[in-house]
Write a structure and sequence with these properties.
globular; single chain; 509 residues; binds iron/sulfur cluster; 5-stranded parallel beta sheet; Serine Threonine Protein Phosphatase 5, Tetratricopeptide repeat; 3 domains; binds ligand DLZ; binds flavin-adenine dinucleotide; alpha/beta; Rossmann fold
Length: 509
């Protein structure tokens, strides 16, 4: 009788792990690999690769200490074992394998690969559900059913009732499901901003950093790598967030500032997405902080909504809509992503600051992603696939199931509005209100036309005019079209002219 082989992918590093629970350490083996194809199917950030490799090596070490036989392939640029299929094929040649056991992956592309292994390698393939999520995919399907419109807010209420987070009996704590209205404060230097807990690389991480540095052509800065790479470190990072930032998370959730890359955000997304933390333990910690009086309700509710609401909702949308979803381009965009998204070399201060933080940290917070880089790509009309590839590459927390709906749906409105009833399009005025970027910019945020005018402004009105037929019937956009109608013909011509000049000169702005 042959053995069973448990494949653990780089974003499935939770412990206890369903693959281990399904196998027997006495007779079965675990398989893990640092794979060159996975590092280059998009041009990943160096810190993202270092995070995944280091966390994988720590997981393997921990599994061995718990008595498992782990076949672990370290990164080797010359290796012929470049893909998951290569890795599994090699293991099937080395051992007498009857069955491959793997958890449902985080990307459609990997699922397709796995589904081919039965016939390719003559083995049974068992796909286990990913137990890390609050809402199983079947439950999402059942909820989505024949609903005409899927709205996050209703899904979120169901998750609140299911989990009991922030519930007083059957009613939402504080009498309301959503306190977003309280979460739009501008940050002006006070209270002092927080930073995520920083972890000094140990010998395993040092060795990974050297590998990435020497052998992998990656985006961004590797220097200063300080991400949590073990479950124990991720739990300390969570406790640090609760202690030092959580109280102000809600108030300044939408704020942006040149003085802080983080303000009061948690930087827990990468830990959650690779399995070092579970959404339940994170929400339990937040609920506890609120009940202990260490976190106001608007902060606790805002945080829990992101985790059991948005995060679970986008996952449900991804698996429901794939594979066609990735190709959707509802606004018919065709422009290329500007080169400065990679270099940060632009005079537009908001974009320069956001891309610079991205290059340094493999991180930007939600409003930078949504209202700066995302908003600009939307207004410019960049092809969604190029925008999605960029987001998948540059952020340490980016995996297809979460990145794609956020980018293609929420930012690019390319799915016809599943992630928001109206596009998150905004002029420079929004960025000026929520940040201090405009004060240090060579462009004038109050101007729409002319050489020095903020490029967001003309692009914004041009976007509304270009998509008038689609968006005018939307009651939430009526007011914006009234503004357009109040413009003289001459003004509209000037705005369109400035917009086309911005597009023509995009790389030199
Ligand atoms: P916090 O602000 O501290 O929020 C707490 C947690 O809530 C996060 O850790 C995250 O797990 C969850 N969360 C918040 N918003 C979302 C959301 N919209 N979708 C899913 N989870 C959310 N998040 C990813 O985890 N991976 C991605 O690849 C990703 N790509 C994005 C692309 C775009 C264009 C946009 C607009 C957002 C994207 N997000 C993504 C969502 C969000 O920006 C990040 O989760 C957040 O910035 C991570 O930082 P944090 O941990 O400090 O979050
Ligand atoms: C993103 C990534 C990278 C850069 N490298 C690896 C790797 O070497 N080995 C691995 O198992 N996973 C890696 N990943 C994550 C995968 O690309 C993919 O997102 C998940 O495995 C899907 O569950
Ligand atoms: Fe960005 Fe315009 Fe403000 Fe400059 S003026 S920082 S381009 S919004």
């Amino acid at each position: 009788m042959g053995i069973r082989l448990g494949l653990i992918c780089g974003d499935q590093l939770h412990w206890p792990n369903p693959v281990c629970d399904a196998l027997d350490p006495e007779s079965d083996r675990l398989l893990m690999g640092e794979l060159s194809h996975e590092t280059r199917y998009v041009w990943h950030h160096a810190k993202k690769i270092a995070l995944i490799f280091s966390a994988m090596r720590h997981f393997a070490e921990n599994a061995r200490e718990s008595g498992w036989n782990v076949d672990y392939q370290r990164f080797d640029p010359a290796s012929e074992i470049a893909t998951f299929s290569d890795l599994v094929g090699q293991a099937c040649r080395q051992h007498d394998v009857d069955e491959i056991v793997v958890t449902w992956p985080g990307e459609w592309r990997v699922l397709e690969e796995i589904q081919g292994w039965g016939s390719r390698f003559g083995v049974d393939v068992t796909l286990l559900p990913d137990s890390r999520f609050v809402c199983a995919l079947e439950e999402f399907e059942e909820w989505a059913g024949e609903r005409r419109q899927l709205r996050m807010e209703f899904f979120y209420r169901r998750m609140r009732k299911k989990t009991g987070f922030l519930m007083d009996g059957d009613a939402p704590a504080g009498g309301d499901w959503n306190f977003d209205r309280d979460n739009r404060k501008v940050w002006k230097g006070e209270p002092p901003p927080s930073s995520p807990m920083s972890f000094t690389p140990d010998a395993i991480t040092e060795s990974v950093i050297e590998t990435v540095d020497r052998h992998i052509d990656a985006f961004g800065e590797l220097e200063g790598f300080d991400y949590p790479v073990t479950i124990e470190q991720a739990r300390r990072a969570l406790a640090h967030f609760i202690r030092s930032a959580a109280a102000h998370f809600g108030d300044y959730q939408d704020a942006m500032h040149t003085e802080s890359d983080w303000l009061f955000h948690s930087r827990l997304s990468s830990s959650l997405n690779i399995g070092l933390l579970t959404p339940t333990e994170v929400c339990e910690a937040v609920e506890r902080a609120w009940r202990d009086g260490d976190m106001p309700l608007n902060a606790a509710e805002g945080f829990i909504r992101q985790v059991i609401g948005w995060r679970e909702f986008v996952r449900g949308i991804y698996w429901r809509e794939m594979p066609g979803y990735a190709k959707r381009n509802g606004l018919g965009n065709e422009r290329d992503l500007p080169a400065f998204y990679w270099s940060g070399d632009t005079g537009m201060n908001c974009l320069r600051e956001t891309i610079d933080a991205t290059r340094r940290n493999a991180y930007a917070h939600h409003i930078q992603r949504l209202m700066v880089t995302g908003n600009f790509a939307l207004l410019l009309g960049v092809e969604p696939e190029q925008v999605c590839d960029w987001y998948l590459a540059v952020y340490a927390d980016a995996f297809d199931w979460v990145e794609l709906p956020n980018t293609l749906g929420m930012v690019m409105h390319a799915d016809g509005g599943m992630l928001g009833s109206k596009p998150y399009a905004a002029s420079g005025k929004y960025i000026d209100r929520m940040s201090n970027y405009c004060a240090g910019c060579r462009y004038e945020v109050k101007e729409t036309t002319g050489e020095d005018a903020c490029p967001f402004n003309a692009l914004y009105w041009d976007f509304l005019m270009r998509h008038r037929e689609r968006f005018e019937p939307n009651p939430r956009m009526k007011m914006m079209y009234r503004h357009v109608d109040r413009m003289s013909d001459e003004r509209r011509r000037d705005v369109a002219q400035r917009a086309s000049e911005v597009k023509r000169r995009i790389e030199s702005l």
